[in-house]
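Review form for a predicted model. The reviewer records the input and the model, then writes brief findings.
Reviewer: anonymous (R2)
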Amino acid sequence: MRLIGINGGTFDPIHYGHLRPALEVQMKLGLDQVRFVPCYQPVHRGQPSVSAEQRCEMIERAIAGQPTFCLDTIEIDRGGPSYMVDTLAELKQRYVDAGLVLIMGTDAFANFHTWHNWQEILRLANVAVTHRPGEALPLYSEAGQILRAHHVKQFTQLCEQIVDVQVTQLDLSATALRNYLQQGQSVDYLMPPAVIEYIQQNHLYQDVE
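Model under review:
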């Protein structure tokens, strides 16, 4: 049975804080591939600073050297608000013979109970929650109740299970990168050189408020 990782987000812009954890989850869980799914219209944060096409181009450049990573434009092609439950339902139909693993960090999972139809998300996929070594998991919140109810040390079925995965995680955000770029500061070693080159060539993030 193939396992496909789903890594969603705005990727505005994509950086090593997205890429390295995804690779480590893939290696530790034995995922056959990781699909990077940029959202079209986020429902939990503001609209991305640059176009969907530009974000996709940056993702393609960032993952070009990793054959098991791929760009999936399913949410952009669908348009409208990007709900993960709809995305997983479509992907489940597309990959009937594969198990889906939704990858998210602890910050995102802390709000998982507010996600649209989160119960159905768990019926469609397993979840991998990434965290830094020593970082506490949200065990005593509403999301923590979900985690305790579904947590396993390793997946034994294809849905409704949650594992936590320790990863090398940079204390880095796309917001910080946009601020660096707006201020003309170097972002070397924080994102792939091909992405930096694309940003410079297209003069992106220069007028971000």
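Findings: Strands lie at 2-9, 33-38, 69-71, 98-105, 126-131, 162-166.
Further findings: The mean pLDDT is 94.
Recommendation: see findings above.
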